[in-house]
Amino acid sequence: MYPYRSTKRTLAQQAARLRSAQPTSSVRFDHLGNRLVWTGRLQPTAASDAYTTRIIYTRQQHPPRVFVVTPQLSERNGEPIPHTYGDGGLCLWHPAYHEWQSRYWIAETIIGWTSLWLFFYELWQACGEWLGGGEHPPDTDNETEDLNERH
Amino acid sequence: MNQQKQQQLDELLLHGLESLDLTQAQFNDAIAKYEAVGRCLAAPGSVLAPYSPTIYAQGSMAIGTTNKAVGRDERDIDLVCEMVLPVTISQAEAKRLLGQCLMENAIYATMLKEKNRCWRLVYAGEFHMDILPSKPDQRLPTPTALLVPDSALRRWKESDPRGYAAWFKRETARSMRQSSGGIRAGVEPAPQYLSVWDKAPLQIAIQLLKRHRDLRLNGNDDAPISIIITTLAARAYRGQDSIIATLFDLLQRMPLYIDHDENRLPFVRNPTNVLENFADKWHTEPQKQRVFNQWIEDAKVDLNELAAATLGQSGESLKRFLGECHSNSALRAYGDRMQRQRGAGLRVATTSGLLGATAGRTSEVAANTFYGASELRRDRR
């Protein structure tokens, strides 16, 4: 089924779709029913760990946030984990490219991206390189550098 | 271990071995180089021309199990130079003539090193080619039987590299996976190139065992010699197709193929010459057998760890069989393959998160760009 449509999805629709995608997962609502919390298990390959993963979605105000609950993600020889936000959430898509939109199904976008992220996280643990590609937000120093280059 | 995990480990090991193995260009180059040596030795007017010399690969080069040495760029390529020699020419004289002939070539003269019973041509940064003089053993009915000098250059000793290659080829054929192993048996010319993806599982397993030995016993003079590992592995092999399953079984069964002679001393029989014991040194240096036994036990432990490791933990265990550099190449190649699948309709099982799933409830993984702050800004520009 084509996951993209023009209308926005309600929390209840997203919840139903997530339950059907992974019947063993749990979906609950909190914050007076305004926040969806999905907890499921993802194991990207046969040799991978099985990760208990949480997706938190507040309808249409913020994009979904994704956290790994267990096993706890860890640094590698003091190197911080690539492609994560300050709160430990996973950076799965680029906001500027509109890869996530509230009319999309979480079950058919975020679950696959999380599994891929976990796969590349494991390879990073094994060899120290992030092999999944991606981009990094500019930091102040480099922005100055970029501006200088333009002149 | 389930079948999917077995396939995944096989794939990682093959990726790693691929970066360690000869490339097709290196293989062709090695053969072109030794064939050129052969033409030089047989050229009309050379000192060897009257003895019709021919040169061909023996050992790992002939049976497709050549590895790169640990910490060295050069690979060892073992060759025999077969000559029709009159009985009046001694072992030492045969070796001297071979050396003289190579020295008469201005280029080879600069690359030549003398060894105990053979001559080494050093192609710096590429190969060592050890060329051993030999002559047909006419006492035996086998057309491939040879006589080669012993290490003291005092007597002729039986050898049959082509017979060994033919035997080895038959053992690899126990696998259901059809592969010629690239081995040319009998009196055919050069071996044929096969990439690790086309080799027989036995060849791959032997390369991994030898690599494990090199890494674990680097510099130890008592480390088991390749011909012992290769012979025991080929005899113990029961036709598994999975590399990891083959390794598990070989490590259990290889010690069972160490026979004993009438004095209860260890005997690793040369399959082409029942009288030859590849482990003859174990009689005078019994610590060599202890090192062999300990190595088998260590390899079992390392293999069990590899099988039990999650993908995230596999780096350490892969290193024990491949070394750090090739273990990282294996993981990189594995990641690259996933990246290519991402561009070609990769599916995920939503029930489990399994990537590349084809059955059950699956959805196509939509295009995405990992974003975020924490990593070094490697690929920004």
Describe this structure in words.
- With 151 residues, chain A is α+β, with helices and mostly antiparallel strands.
- Chain A has helices at 11-21, 110-127, 140-150, and strands at 26-30, 35-42, 51-58, 65-70.
- Chain A has a 4-stranded antiparallel beta sheet with strand order 1-2-3-4.
- The longest helix of chain A has 18 residues, at 110-127.
- Chain B has a domain at 28-166: Beta Polymerase, domain 2, CATH 3.30.460.
- Chain B has 13 helices and 13 strands.
- In chain B, helix 7 runs antiparallel to helix 8, helix 9 runs antiparallel to helix 11 and helix 12 packs across helix 13.
- Residues 374-381 of chain B have low confidence and may be disordered.
- Classes of the chains: A alpha+beta (151), B alpha+beta (381).
- The interface between A and B is large, with 64 and 51 residues.
Radius of gyration of chain B: 24 Å
What is the ordering of alpha helices and beta strands of chain A?
HEEEEHH
Helix content of chain A: 25-40%
Low-confidence stretches of chain B: 374-381
Chain pair sharing the greatest interface: A-B, 64 and 51 residues
- What is the CATH topology descriptor of the domain at 28-166 in chain B? Beta Polymerase, domain 2
DSSP helix fraction of chain B: 40-55%
What multimeric state do the chains show? heterodimer
Shape of chain A: globular
User: Approximately how much beta-strand content do the residues of chain A carry?
Assistant: 15-25%
- Sketch the topology of chain B as an H/E string, one letter per element: HHEHEHHEEEEEHHHHEEEEHHHHEE
